Amino acid sequence: MEKELQKLINETKKDKSYKPRTKHFNPDGTPKYTNCLFLETSHYLLQHAHNPVNWYPWTADVFDKAKELNRPILLSIGYSTCHWCHVMEEESFENEEIAEYLNKNYLAIKVDREERPDLDAVYMNVVTAITGRGGWPMTVWLTAEQKPFYGGTYFPAKKSYQSPGFLDILQSLNGFYHNKASEMKENSESIIQHIKNNSLIPPSENFPDYQTIEKAIAYYKNNADLNHGGQKTAPKFPSHIPKKLLLRAYDKNQDPEILKIVNITLEKMVNGGLYDQIGGGFHRYATDEKWLIPHFEKMLYNNSLLAIDYLEAYQLTKNPPYKKIVEEILKYIKRDMTSEDGVFFAAEDADTLNQEGKLEEGYFYTWEIAEIKNILSPKNAEIFIKYYTMTEAGNFEGRNILNITKSPAKIAKEFNITSQELENIIEETKEILYKKRKEKPAPLLDNKIITSWNALAISAYAKAGFVLNNQDYVKIAEKALSFILDNLFIDQKLYHTYQDGKAKHIAYLDDYAFLIESLLNTYEASHKIQYLEKAIELEEILAQSYEDKIGGFFLNGTENEKLIAQDKPYYDSATPSGNSIHILNLLKLKDFTGSLKYEKRAVKAMEYFAKIMQSSPALVPEMLNALFYYLEENKQIVIAFPETSKKEITKFLNPLREKFIPHKIIMLTEVGEKNNQQIALFKDKVLIDNKVTAYLCVGNTCKLGTVDSQEFLKNF
Questions:
Q1: What is the pLDDT of residues 604-616, one digit of tens each?
Q2: Going by fewer Cβ within 10 Å, which terminus of the chain is more open, N or C?
Q3: In 3D, which of 455, 487, 453 has the Cα closest to residue 346?
């Protein structure tokens, strides 16, 4: 490794375009320090490649070396767009005194949580058990056997009245490791046993029912912020109010309070600083109750999930602004987060260079009034400043995060213009400012390709393509799917990430579950049978490698690295859990294929997680969506068309696009097409008078087909 590293260092010295991220340089301008992370492809690991800390990636060799040297291990886990990860790097990992102590007394390992969600999950459970909370950067002290004996999140470099400094903690824990070895080992075993015990879910005597869903809805009602949307507490994450579950509950019981919660949340989020008013797309979360001040990083998964939230809300409410936001999110992803190959990048950083050339959180997205007046015409500048609530003092470190606090109608009236004229001016000025903003140093783009996150984006484009009848969106979904299947599905193995031409890390549960979901969504949008067939193929691999015989699915499969604990994720956080998504996949595969084996396994998984659903339903809203699907009388819609013509399909499909029908699948079949005969629902579907014929099946019963679209649509 040392020879390979030195060769790469020498080559890079010749490349004048290479700009290492460090404050330590030699007189010739080359970085003073280089460690083994220089050989990695992860942006996060490369950010630390020139720290004075002698970082290693997570490999078996490092643990062997720790045993040989009898040293503890410092494990640091984060991600490339994490603001506080950057802060801890600047304060501690670029500090030569701290680095010298670390290098002499520890072996230091850096992990990109987006590359290794399994390590992140296991050691986040450790940190949560020790401190009662989690987050990034995550900092854990380990033995050479990978066993933790202490942990936390961000540690300040210098001692304060609240806590000791990072160097003090390093020294104290190093002493604990060597001088109190038996106590340290006992402490370590206690932590491991605690997280293993916490992972055990007690059995439930009863299968969850509608009361379980109603309990979750009651929780969200009681905790909803009816002034600002979301939940009452700050910080606010978009996922804290599960819009999909609430929309399904409203569709069933027509409770106006539920719809009010969803509408307020969707409207306030998009009017606040959480939303990039100029470029589109959402930041990760807001630090305040008004959604005004975000953590400015933008994540692919966040925007993909929110696009679906707004899309479903548009279907249900027919509110045009929701459709506009869907289009703006997807435009943002296509423009700023998509490779030439049509696959999607992971994230954009929160920190960007300011006018002094220093990294500053949110600088790229914030504005001063003087800037606006210098760029726009006087009249348009005045309207823009008023529309986006700008002030001379600003609302964020002397600058303005754009946000909307007045209705467009009031603004239009104030300037004596029509609402349409105001909309035209705002759209025109946004385009001008977007181009001007592009002249600033852009946020770092993490161009890592993550299978699970790409699958979420594919689902967003596929669903939007169907609902909005936009074939361009469907083509984007298909192109991304093609890349994933061609480059990350190799020799019947799915991989988790792709970067610099390399597929890395055997896939995790989320990769399989989300990808299967995206294949089913793309099948419904494109009606191409190969996507359903590929979903079935991937599900067979998942079942063999990830399924637990007693129910549910492990995060790691049989070919992933074995860790100190086996995680079976169920908690829906910023992204849904793989178990939640795959239970619904199985239920839909049962409807698509007619095979009861899928439903039996879905039920077995829900039986395993029943106690969690019943006792803490707000932790598992996506799993409750699957339960909802199971409890409802699902509709299977089959539209059969003649070999010679598809023209009349639209009279059935277009009205279905407009309707919010959450518990359904839609399938098209060309009568006589040989490869369709393996699908149970397609059998015996004949044409009436050789015309496009629609069938509705509920449960195991299908109604007679009809060529009358108006008559057919009375069923919905």
A1: 999 999 999 999 9
A2: N
A3: 453
Vertex 445: Cα angle to 439 and 449 (nearest 5)? 150
pLDDT confidence tier of residue 674, bands split at 50, 70 and 90: low
Matching fold, domains 2-198 and 210-221+230-350+446-631: no
Cα separation of 334 and 347, whole Å? Answer: 13
Residue 487 tokens read as 């480059």
Answer whether 696's CB lies under 8 Å from 634's CB. Answer: no
Domain ranges of the chain: 2-198, 210-221+230-350+446-631, 352-442, 635-713
224: β partners: 231
What pLDDT is recorded for position 4?
64
Instruction: Pull the structure tokens for residue 504.
Output: 């890395």
Q: Does residue 143 sit in helix, strand or coil?
A: coil
In this structure, which amino acid lies at residue 20? Answer: P
> CA-CA distance, 240 to 306, in Å (whole number)?
12
Name the CATH topology of 2-198: Glutaredoxin (3.40.30)
The reply to whether the predicted model has a pTM over 0.90 is: yes
- Determine the length of the chain: 716
Question: What DSSP character marks residue 564?
Answer: S
| Cis bond upstream, residue 117 (ω within 30) | no
> Which of 632, 654, 650 is closest to 252 using CA atoms?
632
- Which residue type is seen at 381? A
Q: Give the tokens for residue 694.
A: 């629609």
CB 396 within 8 A of CB 366: yes
Cis-peptide, bond into residue 256, ω within 30° of zero: no
- Angle 569-566-573 from CA coordinates, rounded to 5°: 20
Decide: helix, strand or coil at residue 140.
strand
Alpha-carbon distance of 183 to 187, in angstroms, equals: 6
Q: pLDDT per residue over 115-137, tens digit each?
A: 999 999 999 999 998 998 899 99
Distance CA 310, CA 384 (A): 25
Which of 83-87, 100-104, 313-317 is predicted with the least confidence, judged by mean pLDDT? 83-87
Residue 225 burial class via C-beta count within 10 angstroms: exposed 0-12, middle 13-18, buried 19 and up: buried
CB 221 within 8 A of CB 257: yes
Whether residue 539 contacts residue 97, with contact meaning beta carbons closer than 8 Å, is answered with: no
Nearest-10 Cα torsion for 237, 240, 241, 246: 140
Instruction: Name which of 224, 243, 233, 134 is nearest 622 in CA terms.
Output: 243
Contacts 24+ apart (CB under 8 A), 283-290: 283/350, 283/365, 284/237, 284/574, 285/235, 285/236, 285/237, 285/238, 286/234, 286/235, 286/236, 287/234, 287/235, 288/234, 288/235, 288/236, 289/225, 289/228, 289/230, 289/232, 289/233, 289/234, 289/236, 290/228
> Counting Cβ atoms within 10 Å, is residue 281 exposed (0-12), middle (13-18) or buried (19+)?
buried
Nearest to 209 by CA among 517, 654, 617: 617
Averaged pLDDT, 619-635:
96
User: Would you report the helix, strand and coil content of the chain in percent, each value rounded to 5?
Assistant: 50, 15, 35
Spatial separation of the C-alpha atoms in residues 274 and 282, rounded to whole Å? 6
